[in-house]
Amino acid sequence: MKKEQYLGVSVSPLTYDQIIEDMKQRIKAGEQSTVIAVNPEKVMAARRDPLVKELINNSTYQIADGVGMIIASKLKKGELKERVTGVDMMKRILEMAASENLGVFFYGAKEETVKKAKENLEASIPNLHVAGYENGYVQDQEVLLEKIRQSGAQVIFVALGSPRQELWIRENMPKLPEVKVFQGVGGSFDVYSGNVQRAPEMYRKAGLEWLYRLMKEPKRVKRQMALPKFLAAVVTARGEKR
């Protein structure tokens, strides 16, 4: 699929619906897919760390999770039309899995967090089949992999923080050929467990979720500085959509 490049980092200019439809076709074809969220902070990290850039660019879908990506696309006359957030993409994939009778597996976070997220999602998505789950503190990875295999899950969500979750996916994809969709979801289990409250809808629709989080956590101001630095770098970079 056609992708855009920002400071050497690939971004998929697809909507939620387009990603889900493409993913369904890949599943039918027996192909594995990976989803990674891309925002200005992650792009700037990729600029400093070749490993982060490699992990992003080797993914199937690099979703534009951040209003800064949409602004950059407009500045460069790109084709990114809407934000595709990691937490909402997870929900869309879960709904797809429920409609297609695919088992899902949750891995990561604290025991009480992942368990509560599982229960809440099962209650809110009809016909969702959570084939299994494991917290992020399991020591024996071979036991974990066997648990995933035995579950029969075809979709797995990994919440270990970035880039650890992406490294885990890259290492274990070949060992889990039956799993067709892998998504690193960061703190999404915290959201679905109810431990973390998302910004009100009015902030999300306006692309101001970052502002709401900054008001709630002023210490995030240093992280938010990645946005102006990113936009300045995009504007001054040579080449179309770079």
From TrEMBL:
InterPro entries for the chain: TagA_TarA, WecG_TagA_CpsF
Q: What is its EC number?
A: 2.4.1.187
Source superkingdom: Bacteria
One GO BP annotation of this record: teichoic acid biosynthetic process
Keyword Nucleotide-binding applies: no
Q: Which pathway does the database say it acts in?
A: Cell wall biogenesis; teichoic acid biosynthesis
UniProt keywords (A-Z) are: Cell wall biogenesis/degradation, Glycosyltransferase, Teichoic acid biosynthesis, Transferase
Instruction: Please provide an example of a Pfam family that matches this protein in its UniProt record.
Output: Glyco_tran_WecG
Q: Is this entry keyworded Transferase? A: yes
Under catalytic activity, the entry for this protein gives: UDP-N-acetyl-alpha-D-mannosamine + N-acetyl-alpha-D-glucosaminyl-di-trans,octa-cis-undecaprenyl diphosphate = N-acetyl-beta-D-mannosaminyl-(1->4)-N-acetyl-alpha-D-glucosaminyl di-trans,octa-cis-undecaprenyl diphosphate + UDP + H(+)
Molecular functions per Gene Ontology: N-acetylglucosaminyldiphosphoundecaprenol N-acetyl-beta-D-mannosaminyltransferase activity
* Classification via PANTHER family: PTHR34136, UDP-N-ACETYL-D-MANNOSAMINURONIC ACID TRANSFERASE
Q: Sum up the protein's function in the record's words.
A: Catalyzes the conversion of GlcNAc-PP-undecaprenol into ManNAc-GlcNAc-PP-undecaprenol, the first committed lipid intermediate in the de novo synthesis of teichoic acid.
Q: What name does the UniProt record give this protein?
A: N-acetylglucosaminyldiphosphoundecaprenol N-acetyl-beta-D-mannosaminyltransferase
